[in-house]
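Two entries, shown back to back:
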Amino acid sequence: MKTIWIIAKRELSSFFDSLIAFIIIILFLGFSGFFTWISGADIFITGQASLQSFFSIAYWTLFFFIPALTMRLIAEEKKTGTIEMLLTKAVTDRQVILGKYLATLILIAIALLFTLPWVITISRLGDIDTGGIICGYMALILMSAAYTSIGLFASSITNNQIVAFLSALFIGLFFHFIFEVIAADMKGILGQVINSLSVNVHFESLSRGVVDSKDLVYFGSIIFLGLFLTEVSLSKRNAFN
């Protein structure tokens, strides 16, 4: 665990040193804040003490920002050759993967922490559903964790950051809404199975304040599969070297 934390701190430092962290946090707060408080179905127009509009916007904002965070994690190190130096030390592939994964999640958590003043503001406007807000943030964290694992896998299969970014987006699109669209035209068990693969189905369930074990298992499965495939990708590459 100590090694994983050291790698995570190294990645966090690189995020802030390269200004990527600041840019992502500012853009995230800017986009989500604008659509939550100013444009469209903002809180003042709806007249409801709810953060549902924020959760809906963050659902899409994080979808695009996470691949931007993960695209460089392994691809850049493969391109520069530093991944070889890292993996020849007393560090396992799994420790490297988990360290980079943890660093990305911490950065996303920091971005979400900056939105807590919005919760305080809304609580002053009226009675809020505390459970619903907690579940909404839980849904964002779980979704982010799932897409981070996918982004990490995409970064492990190439040494080109743009390819990694587009690959993560392409894979993510299926989970984000394509599965749901396909399932809408299908009936029976197959349609239900494909619909259950959609992130949106499970995200909406959680963001409404309903904590269901099937939603937790769903996100946990994507996280495990993404990290597992990333480790397989790195191990295969090492086998050829």
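entry 2 starts here
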Amino acid sequence: MDPTGRRLSRARLPEGVAGIARLHAMIGEHLGEDADEAEAVIGIETDRGPWVQALIAAGYRVFAVNPLSVARFRERHSVSGAKSDTADAHTLADMVRTDSHQLRPVAGDTAATEAVKVVSRAHKTLIWERTRHMNRLRHALRDYFPAALEAFDDLAAADTLELLDKAPDPASAAQLTITQISAALKRARRRSISDRAAAIQATLRTEQLGQPEVVTAAYAATTRAATAVLSTINEQINALQGQVEAHFGQHPAAEVLLSQPGLGSIAGARVLGEFGDDPRRYTSAKCRKNYAGTSPITRQSGKKKTVMTRYVHNDRLLDALAVQAFSALQASPGARAYYDKLRARDIGHRAALRQLANRLVGILHGCLKNRALYDEATAWSHHLEHAAA
């Protein structure tokens, strides 16, 4: 599409190098002799992947447009609800032609940050997958082996998985000896092994409601499969944790992030990967807060005004910031004083944590912008004075 909105050409491009080459050829046909001075602007509904990286490397200005924004823009010209790839391509081209000043170009994050983002996302995804498999295992045990739920408080723990794999049904679990249970607890580095082993054995030998023998055998087979999956996930989580710490430790911004209250290597890597390190991406602390989803939104019409939580946000980033805010209550007196001040105004725990996270994002923005380490007195001076008074 040219600057006047006239469509110059249209094609469905294949994946890979052939598609990129065809796109370059299509654009080159219309640039002509002014190719060195002309600029090609591209709209696409994602900010990652080989295509995006290839477009940026070729020198195009690439805007990653949220699909929800594309849908709203489409309704400016048609309210019938019709949708097609061709129409979406036309809408994206029209958006970057007329509204590029309202859109955000793809951030120019460094390769080191992209590597941190890849491993930290994979690490968090495995943790979520472990929770899903653990819930499925809990649901199965409730149906045929409820005593196991009383005996084991953590279904993803190494000792629990070992004992469930060895005795996945009530009959075999009742035959476990103190020596076998103690050995599993010792390998898992538990404390108070003798008392805990005796309590587990007593619980497993209590009377309980069960299923027919053939059904129990079927459940036992699924339990063995679930424990094998959980054991593998645990191993890979530990392996990826080492990768996260290694990549994050090599990043230049790691020292600034680790100086923030409540941020360790894992949470810091997640925050860095989701925020990115492009210094031009966030023009102010408010922009960073808006992207984080910690700042509220205001809806006002006439005399009606409502302040609401942002429900459209980066789930991974907000999760990491919530972890930071909760940990900062113990690590930072200023954060604790700010939280207590909010709670004194009858603000709920989660809402107070969200406001604390919003404040911490602003502090992080200032530290990254000035390349300065966190300083408790500078960050919370007025809140500390208020708490002392």
